Amino acid sequence: MNAKLVDVFSAERLSGNGLTIFPEAEGLSTAEMQALTREMRQFESIFVWREGDAFVARIFTLEEELDFAGHPLLGLAYYLHHAFGEGDLHEWRVRLDRRTVELTSAWRDGRFTATMAQGRPEFLKTLTNDEAGAILAALGLEFDGRRRYPAEVVSTGLPYLILPVSGGLERVVFRVADLSPLLEAHGAKFVYVLDVEHFEGRTWDNAGRIEDVATGSAAGPAAAYLHKHGLVQGSTLSIAQGRFTGRPSRIAVQLVIEGMQLADVRVSGEVVEVADITFAD
């Protein structure tokens, strides 16, 4: 079995968010995919195979399978372009369990960029001050009575609780063993602590053991949140992440406005190849 290791949201190797791509994975069981993901110790791995003219993919974290994720799909665009592309620009459709994702891949001036159309964001819930305060306390943060922006659950495929702060990202410390019950009460899968002044975010697994380097599935909801609250000038922005993991990353987002409505959120990142991996038989 072969696999490819890439770094996403960076043009430099050993930076950005690492990803293992397993091509021709149709013969693997769910248990085997989960075991291989744990073996590689990346935040997520992606498994892909062809069914006729279509590409099918499954995404795993160290703990579970996800219906949708950001950086694995952008990294997959690199593999698809490398394996099946013939020019500098390509479009791809990848079928997941619950949706089909449209990807664009491009080589320009020796740099590779992948883009994912995440679609129209859903604003699922606005938390009360008391509800937001409970989440803040679980992360070792204090509620600021002068807060101008509410905590909201937003999804472009994976529901994130966007928890706005004004600086102080370095103060986050998990005070609970598992954040899942608090998040599930609001229909959220993960929390994304977003500095609304500096456009920088942090997110973790719900036990707080592993911090994600750069999260494409959260960048879309975060950008939609910033747009909703009038914090974005223009239709493009950049979100920083990964500073606290020693792998600073940049996530580019384009907001597609139709009339007065936010119709689509397109998340982009550079991808660089790190290694080809061959597993022993």
From TrEMBL:
Keywords: Isomerase. The keyword Isomerase applies. One of its GO terms (molecular function) is isomerase activity. Gene3D superfamilies: Diaminopimelate Epimerase, Chain A, domain 1 (3.10.310.10). The keyword Isomerase applies. NCBIfam families: PhzF_family. Belongs to the PhzF family. This is Isomerase. It comes from Halomonas salina.
